[in-house]
Write a structure and sequence with these properties.
Elements lengths: L3 H4 L7 E6 L3 H8 L11 H5 L6 H18 L9 E6 L10 H5 L10
Parallel strand pairs: 1-2
């Protein structure tokens, strides 16, 4: 959201970035906003990720790679900077407890 490749190195306070590599909001509003898709070729894909074509999925993966590249080196070896970048397609996942505490929520090492 804040162009991390340009700002994070300057932040002096501890920083922990939690974000999806791409999510539904990013696809709808950044990668393929309506104004950039006048013929609606992304319409179905934006409503349901299972309806995306192979080229749309590739575009989404390229978007993910660009995002991850922007984060490379931000934390370095600093103990006061870190990140958790996941693959959850749901937007606004971090502030909703039901996302993290559901019985079927993903876990790391059983935790």
């Amino acid at each position: 959201c804040f162009f991390p490749q340009n700002i994070a190195q300057q932040i002096q306070t501890p920083l922990f970035i939690v974000n999806a590599a791409y999510d539904s909001w990013q696809i709808k509003n950044i990668l393929a906003p309506g104004v950039a898709d006048p013929h609606g070729s992304w319409h179905d894909c934006k409503l349901d990720i299972t309806k995306c074509s192979s080229s749309q999925l590739k575009d989404m993966q390229d978007f993910r790679v660009a995002f991850l590249s922007a984060l490379t080196g931000l934390g370095g070896s600093s103990s006061s900077k870190g990140m958790f970048i996941n693959s959850c397609y749901a937007h606004c996942q971090t502030e909703m407890q039901e996302t993290w505490l559901r019985d079927d929520s993903p876990v790391l090492d059983g935790i």
